[in-house]
Amino acid sequence: MYIVIAGGGRLGSLLAKKLKEDKHNVCLIDKSLKVCQKLAEEIKDALVINGDASDPEVLKQGKTEKADVVVGATPADEDNIIICHLAKEMFKVRRTVARINNPKHLAFYKYMGVDAPIDSTSIIARIVEEEASFSDVMNLLSIKKGRLSIVRVDIPQESPIINKKVKEIKLPPNSVLISIIRETEIIIPRGDTEVLADDEVIAATLIDNEKDLINSLIGKI
Amino acid sequence: MKYIVIIGCGKTGRNLALEFATSHNVVVIDRNKTALDSLGEDFNGKKVLGDALDTQVLENAGIKEADALVIVTGNDNLNIVIGKVAKKMYKVKKVALQVYELAKKKIFSEEGLIIVNRTYLLVEVFKKCIL
User: Fold this and answer.
1) Model-level pTM?
2) pLDDT tens digits, B7-33
3) What is the ipTM of this complex?
4) Hey, which of A21, A207, B12, B92 has its CA 20 to 30 A from A194?
5) Beta bridge partners of B47
6) Where among A62, A93, A120 does a domain terminate?
7) Which residues of chain A make contact with B115, given a CB cutoff of 8 A?
8) Which fold is adopted by the domain B3-130?
């Protein structure tokens, strides 16, 4: 793939390196000459352009019309939005991704048609919240824009499902047990698999049923 | 009597606000308190301190009821993004904004979005003076 990244800060440069490692072609655009010189040294055979990526001429220099993806990674939300908007409208780029610097600006990204605005602040806040809590439940992954979640649950001694077989556990609708981790062993649960104390259960559920699922596994909340 | 929202209280925004306020309802938004204070004690419009790239701030300024919106923050991209969203999302009847880059005037001009560019205006004025 050919990916144009606007903004050569920590996110832009790290992303460019990762994409180069995966053998993608990368173009990096940054306003600062100093930053560009450093990037050109650090990232071999990536195209580095010193200029304002919200200027269509600069995007043209970066061969944006050939790009599969354009990434807005500058520290200014208005710049990211304009860059993605130009990429779509003028250069017919199929997918635009941007880092949201201030979560309050999300509505503007959506209204201006950015395909994937990534709200890093909210993502990190959620992870920190989970890591900081004493709960035995951890949300591992949210997919389908947060409608489906995969959770890890530590099964405590007092859980109602201890020593019960999987087929005897009453799960809420649209929920499934994916795996049971016991010490170092990974068990694919079958109907007659028994759940023991201190097992870790990995389960998938629709987000609306997450509380019910956790209730049925550890019996609280 | 019209309801006019002005975003950006620099030289242009301030002078527009003071002039409009004599005969219209005016709200001025700026993220800098000193800029808003420069309107003076006699200014009879409303002042909103905040970031105009936040729909909550725009709504506090009454954008839903506005007859006209003037965007003069001094940042081209910011002016364009707010202008386009105001027109699309809040259906403001008249939206006028300033851009410094002449190329952007051509790209982003669309129906109902008036883009004012200083170079373009000066060229037109000089042409009229000379020819």
Assistant:
1) 0.80
2) 999 999 999 999 999 999 999 999 999
3) 0.91
4) A207
5) B28
6) A120
7) none
8) Rossmann fold (3.40.50)
